[in-house]
Structure formats: structure tokens, C-alpha cells
Write a structure and sequence with these properties.
The protein is an alpha+beta fold and 171 residues long. The protein is built from six helices and six strands; from the N terminus they run E-H-E-E-H-E-H-E-E-H-H-H.
Length: 171
């Protein structure tokens, strides 16, 4: 049966979700903002909590906690459909991947990995990214530094695990 017709079920826990593009997924600031707008809209509609994210021109990584076995499937279906409609075709290479993390320690390490991703120089298509930790606008790192938690992102779940999250990420 083709992947698009499978109804995936994931057990309760924290997942690292990643999706790559055929080439470039986000080719402009407007593309990034559209996907972030979709996250803000769809996360509260599902039984998920977004713990961290990083959007890069050729891929995206999300750290998501769920309590309902179909919540991730619902969230990713909504995100993929809405963004593909906006782009007038799918920019994604296959379906998303989701990996269950073993516990809080692995979730903490994965959030650090996500927030460090933009630190390397990336040139993909028309975009060149060279950033500092705090200047990259398409990850949740700045929200962590500001301690922002709201109806679509929960920074406290991860930041409570270390005394100084900024030092943990940047060193």
C-alpha cells in the first residue's frame, strides 16, 4: 500500500521528525514564514506539543511530544498538505521520518543538535546562510533564550533539564 494511504500510529513520547526536500523547500523569507505560520496554526489543533524546530532551505527538523497515537500523523499531514498547496506541488522528497527518543536526555541532546544546525555555512540554491546562534530566525533557539512558551511551542519542557540552556547549546 502506498505510504500516503497508511495511517501511522506512534506511541506516546517525544519524537524527532525530519523531512528533506527534492531540492530547496524554502527559497525565500516568505516561504519560511508560511511554514512557521502553519506550525502556529496546526500544533494547537492536534494533541502535540512542539518542543523545538529548525527550518533550513533543504529540510526541516521538529521535536514533538505527543499523547495521542495519531497526533503526529495528523500534524504532519496538515503541514505537508498546506505547504504543498502553497507551493503548488510538493517540494518534499518522500514522506517525513519520525524517531522516538529514548528519554529526556536524548530529547535534550536533539534540541541542542537542532539549534546548532544553522551554525555551519549553507549554500543551497539562491540562499546562503551564515549565522550566529541568535541571528538565525528560522529555529526556536531565540524563543528558548526569551523563555517563551505558548499554545504552539513549549520551551520549558527542554530548558528545565539544564541549568543554563544557552551555555549548553553554544559550548
Amino acid at each position: 500500500m502506498p505510504a500516503k494511504y497508511r495511517n501511522k500510529q506512534f506511541k506516546e513520547g517525544v519524537y524527532h521528525i525530519f523531512q528533506t526536500g527534492k531540492s530547496v523547500i524554502f527559497s525565500s523569507d516568505i516561504d519560511f514564514q508560511r511554514y512557521l505560520s502553519n506550525l502556529r496554526r496546526f500544533v494547537p489543533e492536534t494533541d502535540t506539543r512542539l518542543l523545538a524546530y529548525c527550518l533550513l532551505p533543504n529540510g526541516l527538523d521538529l521535536l514533538v511530544r505527543q499523547s495521542n497515537p495519531r497526533a503526529i500523523t495528523t500534524l504532519m499531514r496538515k503541514l505537508t498538505t498546506a505547504y504543498s498547496m502553497y507551493k503548488k506541488g510538493t517540494p518534499f522528497k518522500g514522506v517525513y521520518k519520525a524517531r522516538l527518543l529514548a528519554g529526556d536526555r536524548e530529547a535534550l541532546g536533539t534540541s541542542r543538535l537542532l539549534h546548532r544546525m544553522p551554525m555551519t555555512t549553507t549554500k543551497i540554491g539562491p540562499l546562503q546562510i551564515r549565522s550566529t546562534f541568535t541571528s538565525y530566525r528560522y529555529s526556536s533557539y531565540q524563543l528558548y533564550l526569551e523563555g517563551i512558551t505558548n499554545n504552539w511551542i513549549d520551551t520549558l519542557y527542554i530548558s528545565r533539564l539544564v541549568p543554563n540552556y544557552q551555555r549548553f547549546v553554544e559550548n
